[in-house]
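Re-run with default settings, no changes from the original entry. Doing this only to confirm the output is reproducible before filing.
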Amino acid sequence: MPSFPSRRRILATSAGAALAVGAMSRTATAAPYGGSREETRSLDELYRAALAEGGKLKIYAGGDTPTQRDGMKAAFAKDFPEIDLTVVVDYSKYHDVRVDNQLATDTLVPDVVQLQTLQDFTRWKAQGHLLPYRPAGFSKLYDAFRDPQAAWTAVGVISFGFMYDVAAAGTDAPRTPQDLLDPRWKGRIASAYPHDDDAVLYLFALYVQKYGWEWAARYAAQDVVFGRGSNFPGDNVRSGAKAIGVGGAGGALGTGPVRWVMPETAPFMAWGQRAAVLKRAANPTAAKLYLNWCLSTARQQASFNGWSVRTDVTPPTGLNPVWTYPNANLDGFPKFMADRAGIERWKQTFALYFGEVRGEPTPGRPGLHPGA
């Protein structure tokens, strides 16, 4: 994930919001969310308040490897060196049930959850587990990237598709999912399992909806090497082991030896990675500092793929806001994630084509209370 420097920005929500939030019940029958204004304290002011609170912050972040958020940790530590920051990376599908179990057993560890499992934020909001809060710039977010009652906010755009090694592909690099079926790529593709990661699953579901199940059958016949984690395809391409990687993150403006493909009309997928402060968080002020920092203009301008969740941050030349690309299927992913029965059918069907998921989870096995 990218690292975005900058801390001295004017940020925004009223100090009175915290008092309003504190009065709310933890139950699903609590008073309605919302009513607060955007943060008005600067990052420096929030930093001082977080230190007075205890100077600690714990985040559960969705990801594929234990070190995937090290760049963010280093940037945050540079800006706020006295905050004791703990970031635990695991697959979102394990973090969410881990948080559920901690809430049920009154052993909550994280202050912030930042996950790919978008449906959990809807559920946690309904259950009264999220702290309503509007960081500075909340009103500038694209509508789909913020909860209307401020229960959660998206802090970054992630996009999944496929990539290729420029040297290996030559002048005839693949541009669409159909191109991946060319016989010359047989045995040269590394892919994330679609039935192990719901975002990769959605990507493959889009391919099948566009090209039919024949596409999946022909893809399986390409002697594809499958692995766990969306880092798997890119790692294989960057190492030179494979020429093409499918089911990994990237951006359309790459100029290095590995290029991520954003087709002109063929499908790819993107979403806003949601983050929220838990109502029972031990360090709510530090959590608010983190959200304001993530949404600061400088951090958003330095996005690793060029896209921002903010409408007032202009993408680099040659790129438009992600919500202007119909084939990014931005609105489709939250709906897809909400249909858990449908997701199970997709998973089991892809297992018939590609085999069962094998291998150890790439973040390891953090257990019940990592970061405690």
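The domain at 160-270+325-354 is CATH 3.40.190.10 (D-Maltodextrin-Binding Protein; domain 2). The chain has two domains: 15-157+271-301, 160-270+325-354.
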